[in-house]
Amino acid sequence: MAFNHTEAGLVARVSQLSKSYGSGSSTVRALDDVSVGIRESEFTAVMGPSGSGKSTLMHIMAGLDAPTTGSVWLGDTEISALNDRELTTLRRRRVGFVFQSFNLVPTLTVGGNVHLPFELDGRNPSGSEREWVDELIASLGLADRLTHRPHELSGGQQQRVAIARALATRPDVVFADEPTGNLDTRTGREVLELLAAAARDHQQSIVMVTHDPIAASHADRILFVADGRIIDDIEAASADEISRKMLTMERAA
Fold this sequence. Notes:
Low-confidence stretches: 1-6
Number of strands: 10
Mean pLDDT: 93
Helix content: 25-40%
Order of helices and strands: EEEHEEHEHHHHEHEHEEH
Largest sheet: 6 strands, mixed
Number of helices: 9
CATH topology: Rossmann fold
Distance between the termini: 23 Å
CATH superfamily: P-loop containing nucleotide triphosphate hydrolases
Strand order of the largest sheet: 6-7-8-3-9-10
CATH architecture: 3-Layer(aba) Sandwich
Structural class: alpha/beta
Number of domains: 1
């Protein structure tokens, strides 16, 4: 199914997307004719075994990689048609990122890291944006950590800073790449609950790549990827249901 670029209610989408690496006999097809849309104000998990293409799909939707064929849209902007400078501006203003390794700037304080998207855009936050950032900092329990640097924080606190930074500019969509991969179980669950709350309470669209059924069980929707294709698309499910689905996928591989 190919999506019209005016498809309502979709914050991001790809149409007939393929991605290949290498050439000739060594060509690897990471994505194979994928068409899918990400709905607004929803927490979507993208699941699949290693090498399934799930991270490639996220990177292309986020404008971090280019498709071999097909089109990529963020809202009404076809990002697959933008040049590098335009892509950089779009990512800075309209996309948020949360990484497994946190990716905080070690020389900046918590406050400096959270405000970094505005600095990179060469502007100060507006009054309403300052109020929003203050609300984020308070809700994430970071108000007493603003002058600390990343090395003075626990892993969970660092990921909270990364989430605040990703949400600071109210981006169209936040992409989270294995956001609990470096966290213990309890802290990871707290981070997942924060992401789910961002979608539920603040209408933030979130796409999370994960291989963890427990992480995926916090999402509103789960896309299953195998061999470069989306093979299933389901609503919220329990960790046990997701595990059974993954086991069936692996047996069929």
